[in-house]
């Protein structure tokens, strides 16, 4: 896939890691240790390798200065704006490496090789980099699209099969935003294994994301907000239950769809159609609140308030769905989200 | 002055600080302590004020995480991309505040109120922000133009008169790049006090800089390199003699012009014309190497090599001058610069 704007990356798929593309001795490889353990041969041609422990700690700004000094100590070559950082890993590795690439010498070249399905379908694309400050997620960051994103099956297969199931959450999200074409492809492929389905639909999913990003690359007009579908409560679930981003987004999607239905924004016919796909994809296990203890209102409020800081006014731009392919952004009060949480059974207690 | 591209700032001049423009209670003021001491009334309308000690230490990345946490602790308001940081200070304050503005929430609004002539004429414009890592200057940074730059006479006058003389170095540089029009204005105004001359020529000088920046806002094509006139050796002089940036750039300009003449790039007639302006502006005191102890070759080499890291190959793009308004960029070996340094008497010892 060739980029059609400076906010998109050149995207290509391959079965094996394209080592031959990285013969430039001066590049820096930033790689998730877990990937390296499974594919130790990857670093064969690299002089400069910085292996990291993936996770939120990697994104902590408190430790960032020390890490940057380590990298400059290690990367013993004249670094210029044409130097290149190649990041192999999931979302946290991409965010970390992307931020470094965006500020080092005011910007060096950056290429991503996502090792998780979530990164492959979502975070490696669209140019957002981020670090956490004082425990607040993504408090600082830059818009800095990678020049290229290499989707490599052998890298993605270093993840356990269960992680592919998590990737389906973002796949369903983007299909719901894109419309009938991707949604039909999702139904068609529902019988396949998650990894196979994701591999097949990666490119249309990425194209659908770029179609949104292109309208609002730096999040100024608000057009990009629809990508937040399922994420408002998804982030709450992620923090409260400590489960993966993918599972939590699936839960958050369910919450948003159920609320859209209750508000009569989404028709019951459309809701039935979507629910059917959740079942076929085996996602309903994360969406049935009977399996979860309900959350205390106070802690949900605190988590929403933290997320709320992202907007200037006192409301949250919540993404509802009218039809498949028809998102609707509506500002809502935090209290409304709480009441809906109680109604759906996720939240207990007084607000 | 209205911007003609997204890489330029709205620029305006006023005698007094335009407090009324900053009535938004949610903005953050980052201000040089020395300015605050002289104009304590400035902070009257501000809820959030972060006063800093100007200088290179402020730009140290090692201390940056702690400073950012202090700022987030202090700036107790929902911060969004439409929040605004106003920086009152010289180059280091602008670089520091600009970097923060460029990464906080992936970019908040930024306005500069330069308190030094050097910042007013140069560093506040063109969008470069920078921090130092492990002792290396400007190792990281971003391209992030301020929305507005307010040139305020009462702020600039908080500097001692001697500092205005330093500002003349950058003024002469930009006049040499721009051409006969600015050069004639410089000659016309040579009898005035430095501050008065700078105040008069600020806008054409800034316009001349933007004309260059516009061709190569992110330093990709190389067109912006001509702004480095006088700076290659200027940085060496600055580090070696520990004098101000303005004085050092004047010295560095002299070095570049003298070399241009020696190489017959610059005609002797043109050189005489330029030299005459140096004398009229009372700048020759910094350019006569008799007043300076010559520098040891080894330390000059080390300083040049550090600067050299900015380019990918083994050469330095040195900016020569053919005529007033006619810069010429030529790649030279570091050894050539050293030999010229010895020839001019700035450098001693074997290379």
Key descriptive features of the protein:
two-stranded antiparallel sheet, 6-stranded parallel β-sheet, homodimer, 351 residues, alpha/beta
Short structural description:
The structure is a homodimer of 351-residue chains. The first copy, chain A, is built from 13 helices and 12 strands.
What would you say this structure looks like, in words?
The structure is a homodimer of 351-residue chains. Chain A has 351 residues and is α/β, with parallel strands linked by helices. In chain A, 44% of the residues lie in helices and 19% in strands. The first copy, chain A, is built from 13 helices and 12 strands. Chain A has helices spanning 33-38, 64-74, 91-103, 117-123, 153-156, 161-178, 180-188, 194-213, 231-241, 245-262, 268-280, 297-308, 334-344, and strands at residues 10-14, 28-32, 48-52, 84-89, 109-114, 128-133, 136-143, 148-152, 295-296, 316-323, 326-332, 347-348. In chain A, a hairpin with a 2-residue loop joins strand 6 and strand 7. Chain A starts with 9 loop residues before the first strand and ends with a strand. The mean pLDDT of chain A is 91. At the A-B interface, helix 2, strand 6 and strand 7 of A face helix 2, strand 6 and strand 7 of B.
